[in-house]
């Protein structure tokens, strides 16, 4: 199985900040990488696929990059609604696997 | 508008069975792969399994942790997805989400989650 490791596990930031979350795959996955946002008590929401393609309706403050084993999610100009947990996911091969999550908290 | 509405969760004893349903609307159900994902209390997301679309003969894939115990099926006439869970264990306690997948337009290779249901809690306990 492909292991997905996110860093950091938690992150504190202020409104208006720009933050970057990293996701590393245990083997190369080309760009078959997605990002999800989950708020407490809610279902996840899909943000990005193919490492850098925004899902419909996702604001451009979210951006993704990377290929192979190393990927990043960047969120610019943080707003209160952006504080949530973020997960990466590889869909290169079965089983589909997720990172452990990065909890983004307000400083 | 795409909607995925789950039902069927609840409390079940270890060794018991339960069937979850996911009613889909707002899109052509047979065109899409459909997945189940679960989240144990306070934990991260775990993929459970997938059923492919009509063009790919509705074949299935499962996580090792549920293979042989869980079965994914779909009823195109009802636009519904199902997860039959047998031989349940306490570690199967989780919120279960159904999710729609669409073809990765950039690569034409993978299928990516785009819409999620609201989740349904399954508690396995004596």
Structure description:
The complex is a heterodimer of chains A (107) and B (126). With 107 residues, chain A is mainly β. Helices cover 0% and strands 50% of the residues of chain A. Chain B is built from no helices and eleven strands. In chain B, a hairpin with a 7-residue loop joins strand 9 (94-103) and strand 10 (111-116). The relative contact order of chain B is 0.30. Chains A and B meet through strand 4, strand 5 and strand 10 of A and strand 5 and strand 10 of B.
- Give the low-confidence spans of chain A: none
The count of strands of chain B amounts to: 11
Q: What general form of chain A does the structure show?
A: globular
C-alpha termini separation of chain A = 36 Å
Determine the fraction of residues in helical runs of chain A and give it as a percent range: under 10%
- The oligomerization state is heterodimer
Largest sheet descriptor of chain B: 7 strands, mixed
What radius of gyration of chain A results from the CA coordinates? 13 Å
Distance between the termini of chain B: 40 Å
Strand fraction of chain B: over 45%
The description of the largest β-sheet of chain A is:
7 strands, mixed
Number of helices of chain B: 0
- The number of distinct β-strands of chain A equals 11
């Amino acid at each position: 199985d492909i292991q997905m490791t996110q860093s950091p596990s938690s992150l504190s930031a202020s409104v208006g900040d720009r933050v970057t979350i990293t996701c590393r795959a245990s083997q190369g996955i080309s760009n078959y990488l997605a990002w999800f946002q989950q708020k407490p008590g809610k279902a996840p929401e899909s943000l990005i696929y193919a490492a850098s393609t925004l899902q419909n309706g996702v604001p451009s403050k979210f951006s993704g990059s990377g290929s192979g084993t190393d990927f990043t999610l960047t969120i610019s100009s943080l707003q209160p609604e952006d504080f949530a947990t973020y997960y990466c996911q590889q869909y290169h091969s079965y089983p589909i696997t997720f990172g452990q999550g990065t909890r983004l908290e307000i400083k | 508008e795409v909607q995925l509405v789950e039902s069927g969760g609840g409390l079940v004893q270890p060794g018991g069975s339960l069937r979850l349903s996911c009613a889909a609307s707002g899109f052509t159900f047979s065109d899409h792969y459909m997945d189940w994902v679960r989240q144990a209390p306070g934990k991260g997301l775990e993929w459970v399994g997938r059923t492919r679309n009509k063009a790919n003969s509705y074949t299935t894939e499962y996580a090792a942790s549920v293979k042989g115990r869980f079965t994914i099926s779909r009823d195109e006439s009802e636009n519904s997805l199902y997860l039959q869970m047998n031989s349940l264990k306490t570690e199967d306690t989780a919120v279960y989400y159904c999710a729609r997948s669409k073809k990765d337009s950039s690569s034409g290779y993978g299928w990516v989650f785009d819409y999620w249901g609201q989740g349904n809690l399954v508690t396995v306990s004596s």
